[in-house]
Amino acid sequence: MRPPSSMLPFLFVFLWSTGFIGAKFGLPYAEPLTFLLVRYLLVLALMTALALATGAPWPSDGRQVLHIGVSGLLVHALYLGGVFMAIKHGLPAGVTALVVGMQPLLTAAGAGFLLGERVSPRQWLGLVLGLAGVALVVANKLGDRPLTGMLLPAITALLGITLGTLYQKRFCPHFDLRSGSVIQFLPTAICTALVAWSTESMHIEWTTEFVFALLWLVLVLSFGAISLLNLLIRSGSAVNVASLFYLTPPSTALIAWLVFGETLGGLAVGGMVLAVAGVHLARVPAR
User: Fold this and answer.
1) Is the Cβ–Cβ distance between 84 and 32 less than 8 Å?
2) Engineered SS bond to 43: which of 61, 112, 213, 222, CB 3.0-4.6 Å?
3) Residue 63, domain member (yes or no)
């Protein structure tokens, strides 16, 4: 049974948030790009089989193929690669989420310039409130760590997901999710393989935890969350879609509390409320 369209954003936020949990489970047993490469190859194999078995249409225009491939490099290779490398190199997952959580503000700034979308004052207020809420959620995770050297991968991820959302909305908002995923993940896997081969040992410990994390990220994230993201980009404004990412750090913190017993302080709870209020304001259509 298909969930109501009004529930899709919330389902996306939940599924997307579990990516940080999957990374925490799997990264102790593989280097970040090697982990992602195996994930991409599995997704490619499964999506190609699905596309061929169901007769999915493939783009006939070479330019469309190029645009879909570029969007995949931005959304998958840069974003996921940056997030996984940041966490692997010691940046707390909450801080990584905070850096990536700046995406709605960057997207709002770019939406008017690149897409001609008008961002209302109420939406700007919601975006700022959402960012403040995210900051409160992860404030207790900052501590006194030297973060400068670890921030570069997270900033790369931020730029990747921001540019990817804008690029896909501008150049290829409509494509078949089955064949389109193959086109997105193929260049992503090639680029990731080249970088991993030159910078990592590519050794994997095939533990139960790693296999669980890998299957979760392939089946739930790459199939479920990425498909929902593509649907949301197709049907909504760039600002509306981007504002959902404000809910990822609070949602991740809540899941980590349930799964790992991580403590949620008063600031974190207040930040969650503020982030939800900000997203509500930011998702009001511009008039």
Assistant:
1) yes
2) 222
3) yes
**Is 82 part of a structural domain of the chain?**
yes
Tell me if 287 is assigned to some domain: no
- What is the Cα 64 distance to its own chain's centre? 23
Query: Token pair 């897409």 is at which residue?
Result: 115
Six-digit token string for 236: 């909504």
User: Could you give the number of structural domains in the chain?
Assistant: 1
CA dist 125 → 109, 111, 135, 284 (Å)? 13, 16, 15, 11
**What pLDDT digit, counting tens, does each position of 198-226 carry?**
999 999 999 999 999 999 999 888 888 77
Range(s) of the domain holding residue 12: 5-282
Over the stretch 215-262, which tens digit does the pLDDT of each residue have? 999 988 888 877 787 777 776 655 566 666 667 767 777 777 777 666
Residue 261 lies in a domain: yes
| Helix, strand, coil content of the chain in percent (nearest 5) | 80, 0, 20
Cα separation, 132 vs 123, whole angstroms: 14
Dihedral pair phi/psi, residue 174, rounded to 5°: -120, 115
